Amino acid sequence: MDVIIRESYESDGAAISDLAIAAFGESEGPVISALIEDLGADSTAEPMLSLVATIDNSVVGHILFTNAVIRQSSGSVAAAILAPLAVHPEVQNQGIGGQLIQEGIVRLKAARVDLVFVLGYPAYYTRYGFMPAAVLGYQAPYPIPKEHSDAWMVQALRPETAGTVEARVECANALDKQEYWQE
Ligand SMILES: CC(C)(COP(=O)(O)OP(=O)(O)OC[C@H]1O[C@@H](n2cnc3c(N)ncnc32)[C@H](O)[C@@H]1OP(=O)(O)O)[C@@H](O)C(=O)NCCC(=O)NCCS
């Protein structure tokens, strides 16, 4: 089974939407699908990186990274937010999610992104180099309940960037809704 990871094409839109519904379910899936569409049309989400995993030309995985802004008095830090990530239930637990994360990180590094943030399962994302972000001084766009604070994570692509600023991370307009930050 050959898995190919590539940047998504505009023509992948329907397949990415179907995948979101298969992975997130009938209730949450349409919300995630609408979010992906909104981010695609949101100039504040640029630069963005949208990768798909395909098997026999069918989209079985998708990951999206969109621009984030960290305001600080000196210097500038390029940041991105990983959201969402989906792998089709029929091919989960075969490393496809991990491949999408790792390929995304390689490409973001090449694009000179310094920090990548995610709100998600700590036990999953820490496997791929993410660590709790709040202790390093990065606040999520919306307050994360204390009991889930470890779900807000960061990965420094240039290690010297981590922990050098105390700031709130600003996300793209389409992602800037409290409902998306209630992990
Ligand atoms: C989460 C998701 C993207 C993982 O994709 P995947 O391709 O199955 O992941 P991988 O094959 O890279 O990794 C599988 C491993 O992660 C673990 N894992 C999966 N979901 C996990 C979770 N929620 N918390 C902790 N570990 C998890 C699996 O148990 C498996 O562990 P193992 O290697 O010890 O057997 C996929 O399950 C999915 O699409 N879920 C529904 C949508 C979703 O929740 N997206 C993430 C939003 S943060």
Task: Describe the overall structure.
Helix content is 26%, strand content 29%. By secondary structure, it is an alpha+beta fold. The protein has one domain (3-181): Gcn5-related N-acetyltransferase (GNAT) (Aminopeptidase, 3-Layer(aba) Sandwich), CATH 3.40.630. A hairpin with a 2-residue loop joins strand 2 (49-55) and strand 3. The radius of gyration is 16 Å and the shape is globular. The N and C termini lie far apart (33 Å). The mean pLDDT is 94. The structure holds coenzyme A. Coenzyme A is lined by residues 23-24, 84-87, 92-98, 120-121, 123-124.
Structural features:
single chain, 183 residues, alpha+beta, Aminopeptidase, 9-stranded mixed beta sheet, globular, binds coenzyme A
What's the total number of strands? 9
Q: Any idea of the CATH class?
A: Alpha Beta
Give every kind of bound small molecule, once each: coenzyme A
Helix and strand sequence? EHEEEHEHEEEE
Shape, principal axes of CA atoms: globular
Give a quick account of the main beta sheet: strands, pairing sense, barrel closure: 9 strands, mixed
Distance between the terminal alpha carbons, to the nearest Å? 33 Å
Name the CATH superfamily assignment. Answer: Gcn5-related N-acetyltransferase (GNAT)
The amount of helix comes to 25-40%
In CATH, the architecture is 3-Layer(aba) Sandwich
Q: Radius of gyration, Cα only, in angstroms? A: 16 Å
Write the CATH fold name.
Aminopeptidase
Q: Please, what is the average pLDDT?
A: 94
What count of domains describes the coordinates?
1
Total number of helices? 3
Which band does the percent of strand residues land in?
Answer: 25-35%
